[in-house]
Amino acid sequence: MKLPTIHINGTSRDALASGYSAAYHAVSDALDALENVELNGRDYYPQGTDAFTEARREHTERCVALRVVRDQLCEIVQHLMEDAS
């Protein structure tokens, strides 16, 4: 992953850190909300015997995708903080 380089002609460290930190918290909140969604087989059985299994798999994939984004944003924020020292 390409990480930003702080230099005189670029965006300030504070602006980058603030933006990426806000994005990190927003994605973390979205992940928490998604993980709290209750999946129930009764909501899927009219669609067939495999529908609930498929819905669970898709839900898990969405959670994984948000975790990947959250973790990347965390890495960027950490990079920006380390670079400050």
Termini, distance in Å?
21 Å
Mean pLDDT: 96
- Sketch the major β-sheet: none
Tell me the series of helices and strands, N- to C-terminal: HH
The structural class is mainly alpha
Output the radius of gyration.
Answer: 19 Å
Fraction of residues in H or I helices: 55-70%
Spans of at least 5 consecutive residues with low confidence: none
- Name the beta content range: under 5%
Task: Supply the number of helical segments.
Answer: 2
Q: How would you sum up the global shape? A: rod-shaped
Number of strands: 0
Describe the overall structure.
The protein is an all-alpha fold and 85 residues long. It has a domain of 43 residues. It contains two helices and no strands. The chain is rod-shaped, with a radius of gyration of 19 Å.
Which helices and strands occur, and which strands form pairs?
Elements: H1 13-35, H2 51-83
Helix pairs in contact: 1-2
Primary descriptors:
85 residues; mainly alpha
Please give a quick description of this structure.
It contains 2 helices and no strands. It has helices at 13-35, 51-83.
